[in-house]
Design brief:
Oligomer: heterodimer
Strand content of chain B: over 45%
Largest sheet of chain B: 7 strands, mixed
Order of helices and strands of chain A: EEEEEEEEEEEE
Distance between the termini of chain B: 36 Å
Radius of gyration of chain B: 13 Å
Largest interface: A-B, 28 and 29 residues
Distance between the termini of chain A: 41 Å
Structural class of chain A: mainly beta
Largest sheet of chain A: 6 strands, mixed
Shape of chain A: globular
């Protein structure tokens, strides 16, 4: 079965600083990888996804993520954080076949706090 | 161009009552997924449905929980005889295809269930 680990429960950065949120997955084949963002009391919004092809994926709001198969990682990055980026971020993995077909497995989430 | 709709947004029940959560997928989507988010945790997959079919219910508790997605109308997640441990946010997602792959999932705003 697939699994996702987000090692950092809480990250604090200053506005304008760069950001990297870590995500490691466990899955035997090529996974489908996602980053979602959740603001307090809200649903999840998709930031970006990786299915195949170029391992550097661009998303909305200036975010990007890089798939590294050798490290089983899909870290999320942003060069300059804005106060509005404060939220909780979830990494997720999906599979295209087998008994887990259709469902997403989420990491525990990383809460991002942005200081002015 | 409405997104995934869930109602009610907030639901309060007393122990032993029934909770009914509704989800209307995005237009053109025929696949629905339910996830539960307990406090301080990530989302956990519960069930995956297509119209009139349950595809994967591996994440559903064996008792008191049921889900349906009828030919007409919204998907319903039903919790009978609720207990305090059922208090959580329940999210519905929909996709065009039944996969975590190219058929990316779009999430609703969630229903926050509180059991007194």
């Amino acid at each position: 079965a697939q699994s996702v680990t987000q090692p950092d429960i809480h990250i604090t950065v200053s506005e304008g600083a760069s950001l990297e949120l870590r995500c490691n997955y466990s899955y035997g084949a090529t996974p489908y990888l996602f980053w979602y963002v959740q603001s307090p009391g809200q649903g999840l919004q998709l930031l970006l996804k990786y299915f195949s092809g170029d391992t550097l994926v661009q998303g909305i709001k200036g975010f990007e993520a890089e798939f590294k198969r050798s490290q089983s990682s899909f870290n999320l990055r942003k060069p300059s954080v804005h106060w509005s980026d404060a939220a909780e971020y979830f990494c997720a993995v999906g599979v295209a076949g087998g008994t887990s077909y259709g469902k997403l497995t989420f990491g525990q989430g990383t809460i991002l706090t942005v200081h002015p | 161009n409405a997104g995934v709709m869930q109602n009610p947004r907030h639901l309060v029940r007393r122990r032993g009552q029934e909770a009914r959560l509704r989800c209307s997928p995005m237009k053109g989507h025929s696949h629905v997924y339910w996830y539960r988010q307990l406090p301080e945790e990530g989302l956990k997959f519960m069930v995956y449905l297509q119209k009139e079919n349950i595809i994967d219910e591996s994440g559903m508790p064996k008792e008191r929980f049921s889900a349906e997605f009828p030919k007409e109308g919204p998907s319903i997640l039903r919790i009978q005889q609720v207990v305090r441990g059922d208090s959580a946010a329940y999210f519905c997602a929909s996709s065009k295809k039944g996969t975590g792959g190219p058929g990316e999932q779009f999430f609703g705003p969630g229903t926050r269930l509180t059991v007194l």
